[in-house]
């Protein structure tokens, strides 16, 4: 199997250390169910861009450790929504805001630890972001989650952006 089919998201060097890297996932069960007669074809379709997959979701990588050249050496991975209002994205397409190793939801100012996902301040204090499993092999980050299949880098194109009324502009 090729590396992309194995869920290669990005090299560690592509993960920003002061923001987030946005990508798309699809629920693995849905792909498998849809492909009950020809799962390989459907899984390939999803991996090639998710054109038939109605339940794509956004996720983000965030650096949790860096080396002395400010390159990410470890990451965590979260679904791209706030725990206060779950239709609000942390990364609206240009990278999530960060401060002192915490992700910031700029809608109402919640702070989430980049490594644990715990909300340390804000209206959802004590809640935790929804995690996805990743692994790093030879400097590349792979999605290694039982529930989600990697689809591709960037935002969900067909997503009705419910955050467009946000008070944040990039
Ligand atoms: S929607 Fe994120 S803090 Fe309110």
TrEMBL record:
Residues 75-143 form the Rieske domain. GO terms for molecular function: 2 iron, 2 sulfur cluster binding; metal ion binding. Coiled coil: none annotated. Keywords: 2Fe-2S, Iron, Iron-sulfur, Metal-binding. PROSITE patterns: RIESKE (PS51296). This is Rieske iron sulfur-like protein.
């Amino acid at each position: 199997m090729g590396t992309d089919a194995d869920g290669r998201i990005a090299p560690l060097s592509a993960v920003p250390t002061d923001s987030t890297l946005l990508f798309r996932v699809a629920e693995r069960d849905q792909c498998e169910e849809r492909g009950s007669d020809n799962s390989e074809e459907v899984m390939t379709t999803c991996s090639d861009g998710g054109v038939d997959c109605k339940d794509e979701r956004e996720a983000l990588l965030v650096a949790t450790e860096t080396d002395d050249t400010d390159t990410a050496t470890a990451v965590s991975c979260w679904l791209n929504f706030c725990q206060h209002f779950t239709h609000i994205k942390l990364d609206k397409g240009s990278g999530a805001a960060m401060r002192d190793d915490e992700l910031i939801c700029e809608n109402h100012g919640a702070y989430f630890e980049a490594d644990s996902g715990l909300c340390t301040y804000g209206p959802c204090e004590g809640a935790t972001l929804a995690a996805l499993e990743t692994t790093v092999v030879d400097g590349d980050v792979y999605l290694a989650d039982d529930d989600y299949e990697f689809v591709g880098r960037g935002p969900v194109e067909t997503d009705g952006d419910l955050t467009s009324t946000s008070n944040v502009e990039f």
